[in-house]
Write a structure and sequence with these properties.
This protein is α/β, with parallel strands linked by helices. The chain has helices spanning about 5, 10-20, 25-35, 45, 50, 100-110, 200-210, 235-250, 255-265, 275-290, 300-305, 305-315, 325, 365-370, 375-430; strands at about 80-85, 90-95, 115-120, 125, 130, 145, 150-160, 165-175, 180-190, 225. Its EC number is 3.1.3.48.
Length: about 450
């Protein structure tokens, strides 16, 4: 691949043309209109017995590509195969499990011979539960999770904090046959809901780590990829991966990102949820193509990467006033977050690459604090209080802050349990009311 082909190509020219016309919303809308021409059904998702198994009522799996469970009373799960033959890729895209579908989730992994889970969301985002915590919260056999309904056990073997993402190794055991399998989880912890990472560079490094493990290769079962709904961040990951595979095989001149997206949407509805996610796919493909060039120099990326220049010229609209505390530097260092096994290893190290624009890359308790209007107002008042009252008062303030954080964590856990009970009650009620089905 010549240097000229790397740094001047049709994808980059198309990207610059859309930017010059400020037409990302228009391009995204046209893709949506094209997708509406598909004549695919999702009748299984609309059945009364299955409605409660969908996290979102407007995100349903197509019938022709849905994953069918075999060793379960109900064969339904909100998941689709996404097969891209040209890129020699096959994925399973699914929603974040609900409290009463975690067993179904692990059964799908067992039956599909999956070797890896790619989780692209946090459990709690913007004070809302986006995914039930489906893995053991501590290492060791004593902390295993057992799902008697599907006869499976899950043990957390090891865990590694890689800054803006984490990796975990699970041991999945079939209680009927006694067989065990190793399952890897790659958990991207700093990708905001309905958003994109700040830079394609960190995302491409994450993609490289996943690729090097071999879990995306067709030799084993398809990897399971999920965010909350299994369409936005999950679709973004798959689109960039497939495009870069074709770049390596056929060259950048043979890649059409929009056609690839439409092909993927034939397998699961709604992939790529925002114009920003579409733009990020272009940026990641352009940057990833440059990195395939043997003459590429890592130190030159900030000078030559097209997305850096464009982001400076086309600044995003300002956030609402309540979110100002997320975008400006704090007037003083924030207190450390108390360690908690129940929150998992989601906290970034001091030098981590934070790529979340709408919610900070911290455990759920920090999210609830940043999303509070009163907390945003307090950011201006408390530094002055510390300065006026001296170091002793500052230490008292830090202790009070830690105590408040612990209380918020406890509150979030309680709300999570209440939500799980509510979902369970709703599911049972829907099963009892099959004589009078409720249509959307």
């Amino acid at each position: 691949m010549s240097q000229n082909n790397v740094y001047t190509n049709n994808v980059e020219e198309e990207y610059m043309d859309i930017v010059s016309k400020n037409a990302w919303a228009l391009v995204y809308q046209k893709l949506g209109l094209s997708s509406q021409q598909f004549c695919f059904t999702w009748n299984e998702a609309k059945k009364p017995k299955n409605k409660a198994l969908n996290r979102y009522r407007d995100v349903n799996p197509y019938d022709h590509t849905r994953v069918i469970l075999k060793r379960c009373e109900h064969d339904y799960i909100n998941a689709n195969y996404v097969t891209m033959e040209r890129a020699n890729r096959r994925y399973i895209l699914t929603q974040g499990p609900l409290a009463f579908t975690v067993g179904h989730f692990w059964l799908m992994i067992w039956e599909q011979n999956t070797k890896a889970i790619l989780m692209l969301n946090k459990v709690i985002e913007k004070n809302e539960i986006k995914c039930h915590w489906y893995w053991p919260q501590a290492i060791g056999e004593v902390n295993k999770m057992t799902f008697n309904e599907v006869r499976l056990e899950v043990v957390l073997v090891s865990e590694e904090d890689c800054g803006y993402y984490s990796t975990r190794l699970f041991k999945l055991r079939d209680m009927e046959s006694g067989k065990c399998r190793d399952i890897m989880q790659y958990h991207y912890t700093t990708w905001p809901d309905f958003g994109v990472p700040t830079s394609p560079v960190a995302f491409l490094q994450f993609l490289k780590r996943v690729r090097e493990s071999g879990v995306l290769d067709p030799t084993d079962g398809p990897p399971v990829i999920h965010c909350s709904a299994g369409i936005g961040r999950s679709g973004t990951f798959c689109l960039v991966d497939c495009c870069l595979v074709i770049v390596e095989k056929e060259g950048i001149e043979n890649v059409n990102i929009q056609e690839m997206l439409l092909e993927m949407r034939r397998h699961r509805m709604g992939l790529i949820q925002t114009p920003d996610q579409l733009r990020f796919c272009y940026q990641a493909v352009i940057e990833g193509t440059k990195r395939l060039d043997p003459n590429f120099k890592e130190e030159d990326e900030m000078e030559e990467s097209i997305y850096v220049v464009v982001n400076e010229e086309e600044a995003p609209p300002p956030p609402p006033p309540r979110a100002e505390s997320l975008t400006r530097a704090p007037a003083r260092p924030l207190p450390a977050i108390p360690a908690s096994e129940s929150l998992g290893n989601l906290q970034l190290s001091a030098g981590a690459d934070s790529s979340s624009d709408s919610c900070p890359p911290t455990p759920p308790a920090r999210d609830s604090r940043s999303s509070s209007a009163s907390s945003a107002d307090d950011e201006d008042e408390e530094p002055r209080a510390v300065a006026e009252s001296g170091a002793g008062a500052g230490e008292d303030l830090l202790r009070r802050r830690r105590r408040e954080l612990a209380e918020r964590v406890s509150s979030m856990k309680r709300k999570a349990r209440e939500a799980e009970r509510w979902h369970a009650l709703k599911r049972f009620k829907k099963e009892d009311d099959t004589k009078e089905p409720c249509e959307d």
